[in-house]
């Protein structure tokens, strides 16, 4: 996975001083790296009988759609509030200062269907844990995949212990 990690650019002091931002745009612009990232996720979950890939807004969409296509399953968007037009499930979660919320259509996943959640980054785990809770309202959480995991922030600890978790690049 060093191939992928080496393609991710470090941007110091973004979005504010003292933060080292891991920028995936340098990785996704390279067709070989992008293909490798998608292939790695597909390979890891190909035997999990996935019915849907759920991508967390917005960078989870970048990876979720091609993974869903490759696995031969549907795609479900998990979005910020008031972006989906039909009835939704919603989950509120804690941020460093305040709260946020994500939503998913109530009819997006049929009862008992197996779902893989995808996002670009696992940091503190709040958004990913909320997405897991959303999916579990309707379906069966089969796994969670990330391009980047910031291990020092211990976000993995907030995720369900009984599902497969994949991170392509760990820092």
Could you describe the 3D structure shown?
The chain has 171 residues and is of the alpha/beta class. It has a single domain, classed as 3-Layer(aba) Sandwich (Rossmann fold). Helices cover 30% and strands 35% of the residues. The chain contains 5 helices and 9 strands; from the N terminus they run αββααβαββββαββ. The strands form 3 sheets. The chain has a 5-stranded parallel beta sheet with strand order 4-3-7-8-9, with helices on both faces. The protein has a two-stranded antiparallel sheet with strand order 1-2. β1 and β2 form a beta hairpin. The longest helix is centred in the first third of the chain and has 15 residues. It is globular, with a radius of gyration of 15 Å. The mean pLDDT is 96.
Low-confidence stretches: none
- Please trace the helix and strand order, writing H or E for each element: HEEHHEHEEEEHEE
% residues in beta strands? 35-45%
Distance between the terminal alpha carbons, to the nearest Å?
12 Å
């Amino acid at each position: 996975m060093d191939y992928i990690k080496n393609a991710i650019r470090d941007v110091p002091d973004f979005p504010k001083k003292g933060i080292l931002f891991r920028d995936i745009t340098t990785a996704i612009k390279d067709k070989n790296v992008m293909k490798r990232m998608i292939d790695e996720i597909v390979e890891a979950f190909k035997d999990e009988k996935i019915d849907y890939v759920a991508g967390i807004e917005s960078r989870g969409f970048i990876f979720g759609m091609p993974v869903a296509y490759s696995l031969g399953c549907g795609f479900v968007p998990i979005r910020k509030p008031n972006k989906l037009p039909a009835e939704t499930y919603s989950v509120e979660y804690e941020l460093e200062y305040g709260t946020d919320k994500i939503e998913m259509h109530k009819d997006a996943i049929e009862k008992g269907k197996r779902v893989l959640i995808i996002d670009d980054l696992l940091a503190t785990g709040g958004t990913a844990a909320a997405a897991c809770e959303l999916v579990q309202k309707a379906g069966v959480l089969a796994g969670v995949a990330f391009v980047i995991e910031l291990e020092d922030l211990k976000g993995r600890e907030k995720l369900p212990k009984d599902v497969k978790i994949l991170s392509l690049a760990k820092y």
